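Protocol step 4 of 6.
Sequence for SDR family NAD(P)-dependent oxidoreductase (Actinokineospora soli) entered exactly as in the expression construct, tag removed. Do not edit the line below.
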Amino acid sequence: MRLLVDEGVNVVSGSRTITPGLKETGALAVTVDLSTPDGPAHLVEQAVTEFGGIDVLVNNVGVGDTEDIARGALTTLLELPEEAWRHTFELHFYSALRAIRAALPTLVERAGVVVNVSSIAARVPGVGPFDYGVSKAALSALTKVVAGQYGDRGVRALSISPGPVSTGVWTDDDGFIAKLARENGREREEFAAELLAGMGTLTGRVTTPEEVARLIVFAASPNNVTGSEILVDGGVVKQL
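Step 5 output, structure tokens:
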């Protein structure tokens, strides 16, 4: 977000809470729950009202609470309740679908671009939080649909798929990785290092948030890339 602002983009963000760090970016921060049926449309309406239209829509809703995502990593298909599936899809898929549908008229008008932040979990949904992986697979497929249906009207759509990223999910003592470590009777740092090695990362480290942000800025810039997925995973995904 900060990189887009630095590029001179007028940015409107939507989240349930407005943190001091978010305020410092210079973006117009809107308090909204994007997992609700009306949340995404409300955010789009605010952006259009404030700036007259939308050129770039970035769907980057986070993984949610640690307990929510951990359920998909610590249970089986029979054990995970339907409500958990519904919550995961509302957060990671339907929030993006609703935002895209609300923004498409102005995106068509301005030949805009949709950037969906997916995950390499979409390629291996059976590993880790499987409900999360399945929801991200749906999001990546949605990118293809938008690109295919609206490309001839000037709208591009891309997926950015990170692997492990050094956010609180990976680094905090109360984050997702820390919870998995406790479940296995391990220290977080040691467990995280072994987990990363087991993934087969070629760079030997996790991706930084800024590296993901730079790819989003590239995707949003004028180019002829659409319907594509860009991986930023340190080489975890090996297949073509």
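Step 6, annotate. The chain has a mean pLDDT of 92.
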